[in-house]
Specification:
Bound molecules: pyridoxal-5'-phosphate
CATH architecture of the largest domain: 3-Layer(aba) Sandwich
Strand content: 5-15%
CATH topology of the largest domain: Aspartate Aminotransferase, domain 2
CATH class of the largest domain: Alpha Beta
Number of helices: 13
Number of strands: 12
Radius of gyration: 22 Å
Order of helices and strands: EHHEHEHEHEHEEEHHEEHEHHEHH
């Protein structure tokens, strides 16, 4: 048995996405910049995909820039807003402590250049409020960047309201919507979003392709210098097969969103209910305002890595944080941001579902996690100290 419950790390490509790519891998191979007919066929496809994606995000085609994925889109959005701010002598940026590293590391780079970064405290439920953003905005603030949905704990932020605050105060608002696209409603106009990043491989599209939406009028700064592709804002021959796969995957995900979310909600609720029966366990992220695909727990007295390896032996693919952090011994910055102590943050488990999971799989996951947690606790000296009262439980 193989159960894939790591869809926040990446998803399996859908048949629809693969089928949409095939003609451009095997036939329509032209370079969209070429003037001849072979190139122009590719260019027609490119324009068509741009239109379709713009429609799904609620913007204009010329506000779409194709990038190599979510990370590049985050980099380009933040750097662009920072350079614009710099010219207006505004060098203050507001974000949160639980952003993806594509955002946090870009902000660190700007900090070294002399930008001032305010990272808003995240509440224990994994939420920030529009009021926090409002209070943090200063006359020299050039950008607010807050993620739509968190990739580790699944909490969904009040994006429209945060956008409204930024709009009123005249500050550019960017959101990393990589975990939201195809899973939650997006309309950049209605939600007061100036810039937004998405990535195809998080909604059953191909890897290595994403989109930066940026409202017309915001000047973009190149991350990749080169030819005149993407209105001169992103050099490099366009990856037409991937772009076509992304457009098809996003359309499919949006079309099936309500149906998928209904199914996911039932599976997620059952999973939370089942795992809550484990003693000294706590759910991370808000119970209500969360992705219906995300379940994230901390188990006291457990080491996350061992948990993952034993679950893998049972055929379950899960994660203990972001894929980028695993392999290092640092606990997840997201769990630290919501106030989990180091030793608790180490014992985390993220299960991120897709509509392809089944009720039987959910029951098997619950049974397996219970077994593995019991086993690991039975051989853990820390657990021994906890139940003998030599150490106090953190999770009651
Ligand atoms: C996966 C992810 C990214 C990075 O996207 P890539 O396409 O893999 O570069 C950025 N932000 C969030 C929230 C993500 O989940």
């Amino acid at each position: 048995m193989q159960i894939y419950a790591d869809n926040a790390a990446t998803t399996k490509m859908s048949r629809t996405a693969i089928d949409a790519m095939l003609p451009y891998l095997d036939g329509i191979y032209g370079n969209p910049s070429s003037l001849h007919s072979v190139g122009q066929k590719a260019n027609e496809a490119l324009c068509d995909a741009r239109e379709r994606i713009a429609k799904l995000l609620g913007c204009e085609a010329r506000e779409i820039t194709f990038t190599s994925g979510g990370s590049e889109a985050d980099n380009q959005a933040i750097i662009s807003a920072a350079r614009l701010g710099e010219r207006q002598e505004k060098k203050h940026i507001i974000s949160t402590a639980f952003e993806h590293h594509a955002v946090l590391h870009t902000l660190n780079r700007l900090k070294k250049e002399g930008f001032e970064i305010t990272l808003l405290d995240v509440h224990e439920n994994g939420m920030v409020t529009p009021e926090q953003v409002d209070e943090a905005i200063r006359p020299d603030t050039c950008l607010v960047t807050v993620m739509y949905a968190n990739n580790e704990i699944g909490s969904v932020q009040p994006i429209k309201e945060i956008g409204e605050v930024c709009k009123k105060q005249g500050v550019i608002f960017h959101t990393d919507a990589v975990q939201a696209a195809g899973h939650l409603h997006i309309n950049v106009r209605e939600q007061n979003i100036d810039m937004l990043s998405i990535s195809a491989h998080k909604f059953h599209g191909p890897k290595g392709i994403g989109v930066l939406y940026s409202r017309k009028g915001i000047p973009l700064v190149n991350i990749i210098d080169g030819g005149a592709q993407e209105r001169g804002k992103r050099g490099g021959t366009e990856n037409i097969p991937a772009i076509m796969g992304m457009a098809a995957a996003l359309e499919e995900a949006c079309r099936n969103m309500d149906k998928n979310n209904e199914k996911l909600t039932l599976m997620k609720d059952r999973l939370i209910e089942g795992l809550s029966e484990i003693p000294h366990a706590v759910l991370n992220g808000d119970r209500k305002s969360r992705l219906c695909s995300n379940v994230n727990f901390c188990f006291e007295g457990i080491e996350g890595e061992s948990l993952l390896l034993l679950l893998d032996d049972k055929g379950i693919c899960a994660s203990s944080g972001s894929a980028c952090t695993s392999g290092s011994l640092d606990p997840s910055h997201v769990l630290l941001a919501i106030g989990r102590p180091h030793e608790i943050a180490h014992g985390s488990l993220r299960l991120s579902l897709s509509e392809e999971n089944t009720d039987e799989e959910i029951e098997y996951i619950i049974k397996s996690v219970k077994e593995v947690v019991s086993y690991l606790r039975s051989i853990s000296p820390i657990w021994g100290d906890l139940i003998n009262g030599r150490k106090e439980f953190v999770i009651k």
